[in-house]
Amino acid sequence: MTEHEFNVACSLLEDYRRLIAAGKLQRWDVVKWTVGINIGLATVAAAVSTAAGHILVFAIIVAVIGLLLVLHYFSRMTNARRDAGKAEDYLIQNGIDLPSMRMAPGRKVTIFYDWQELAPFILAIIVSVTPAVLVFIYKGQPTNSFLAMSTEAIWTIIGAIASVSVLGLYIFVEFIRPRMRRYKLKHPCDVTFVIPPQRTSQICEFAVLDDQWHFTREITAPPHSDIHIELRLVPRLNFTQSEFAFGCDGDKNLDTKPFAVEYFNSFIDKGKKVASPESNEHHYTDRHQYYHITGNRQRSVGQHFIVGLVVRTREPGTYKADIETTTEEMQGMHRLVIRVEQPQKTPMKCVEHNNCNVRPNAKAT
Q1: Which of helix, strand or coil describes residue 323?
Q2: In terms of C-beta density within 10 A (0-12 exposed, 13-18 middle, 19 or more buried), how is residue 321 classed?
Q3: In this structure, are 108 and 8 located in the same domain?
């Protein structure tokens, strides 16, 4: 696989991720407008009793159109996922170890891939017709008997419950859900250090490698050394990343704390594997010794990504490493720990396996 072929495959994957993200936004707009229109139609039907039947027909037509559009967008997203799978298969066949980078094994891609979202969306559209149905039934009830009055009261209560339920759903998705999203965007990813198995060609000077992949939230490194670290970021929600930054916290220890000097990609076989502020206009370091990488990237749940950095350590100490991801709405923050020791003794706890600790490489210099 040439560098050009690798770049084309990565570009295709990025385009497919954008199509999936656009489909998620479009299907939500369809559900939102369908529910809103049908609530408005039910309100008109309640005010104009003679038109309740005609308005019910309109509400059903709106719901059917909404369902067809939602299924259409789910179908487009399914096709995009299948095409993305072909690009991933191409990379795997050419030596890129994508299965090891995934959080979980890939699932079979069907229209029900996102059934957790498909089910409530379809239910919301169907329920949105309920107020118009209840108004139509209520307006057709006779009022000259006690039984009719009881039936009328029952339908009134049911109609009120249905209307409140739809209104509650609308408030949730329009107001509460965005607030929940902003809360998650404070920490949009699960971030860990990657310690590869010894069978790979990846460089990891600070740890004693075995036959397994390990993921830790802290590492033990030697002082006055350049070490290769890799960060695994697993998105907790879908977002667009405009900037990535890595650096150790604190301005009072600028002469002693570790800092990143270079970016690298260990999964590239042929092509440009490294980048730095001197060679790439999208890379820069600030006066606080944070390393920044700019550029829009679509991040999706289920597809994590790796960032490799060459970090230069200096004086011994325990340093808080900040990983910042700037999204379309706010900046997210994650924190890991870099422990610089001489000699290196503190084991690194693996969060992937139970009772697993990775020994530091005491011979590293």
Answers
A1: strand
A2: buried
A3: yes
- The C-alpha atoms of residue 62 and residue 129 are separated, in whole angstroms, by 9
Q: Look up residue 142 and give its amino acid.
A: P
Per-residue DSSP letters for 215-271?
EESEEEE-SS-EEEEEEEEEESS-EEEEEEEEEES-STTTTTS-EEEEEE-TT-SSS
Q: Hey, which residues does 291 pair with through a beta bridge?
A: 246, 285
| Domain extent at residue 214 | 189-358
CA dist., res. 30 & res. 38, Å (int): 12
Specify if 364 maps to a domain: no
Task: Please check whether residues 173 and 316 belong to one and the same domain.
Answer: no
Which pair of tokens denotes residue 322? Answer: 């900040």
The span from the CA of 267 to the CA of 3, in Å, is: 12
Q: How does strand 317-326 pair with strand 331-340?
A: antiparallel
Cβ neighbors of 172 (< 8 A, separation 6 or more) are none
Give residue 164's pLDDT. Answer: 66
Q: 269-300, pLDDT tens digit by residue? A: 777 889 999 999 999 999 999 999 998 888 88
Identify whether the C-beta of residue 265 lies closer than 8 Å to the C-beta of residue 252.
no
Which residues touch 212 (CB under 8 Å, ≥6 apart)? 197, 353
Instruction: Judge if the upstream peptide bond of residue 343 is cis by omega within 30 degrees of 0.
Output: yes
My answer on whether 91 and 162 are in the same domain is yes
pLDDT value of position 303 = 82
For 279, other C-beta atoms within 10 Å of its C-beta total: 11
The 10s digit of each residue's pLDDT in 76-104 is 888 887 888 787 777 777 777 666 655 44
Copy the structure tokens of residue 121: 């969306």
